Amino acid sequence: VSPIVELNVGGEMYTTTLSTLKKHPGSKLAEMFTGNHKPRTDSEGRFFIDRPGTHFKYILEYLRSNQVPTQCIQEVYKEALFYNIDPLIKQLEDSPQIFGEVVARKQFLARVPNYSENIELMIHIARAEAVASRRSSVIVCVVRSEEDVARCQDALSSLDMDKKSVVKFGPWKAAPGISDLLDCIQMDLEAKGYKTSFQPHIAEKGFRFKSHDYFYKFLFTWW
């Protein structure tokens, strides 16, 4: 391989040196040019990498000068993970954006049983109710402790008898409370492209406590 390397990254063209690409042994870029692998080339003979090319410039700048990007942090982090550039990954994880998402929020949600599955269930229910409607709603029961579960049991049974679907989140063992989890649910639904809002839901029967402390209605707006 020539000391000067031309790259086609998802349609974006870059020129750099072989030593720059091999700067971090063990990274995917270094492995591509060790001689053990034969990189793909495009019609012009440039080495082709099938990744979004827009943010590769930040990866290349880090390899050249150890400069950690201050913009597009989330996108660059994904690319750093793909290329397995450990020093960049660690430095990005110290940034407020990645620290808050990966270390704080994701670690919290990992302690909420079946969180990802429940998000998909909410979407499934909302889409099923969206026929010829501008909005559809999903009832969510959020219980932080086993005591909360016991308080909600009668209302859940009543809603089930009325054939109303309820998605239950919790209980969990972590500091964030119910309002924090509701914000996370909305954030993750909107990250999937859904326009949502939520409000307390008053259970009509089967509840001996204030139902709006545990039951919420998520509204999906389709158009």
Automatic annotation (TrEMBL):
GO terms for biological process: protein homooligomerization. Coiled coil: none annotated. It comes from the Eukaryota. Residues 3-100 form the BTB domain. CDD domains: BTB_POZ_KCTD14. Pfam families: BTB_2, KCTD_C. This is BTB/POZ domain-containing protein KCTD14.
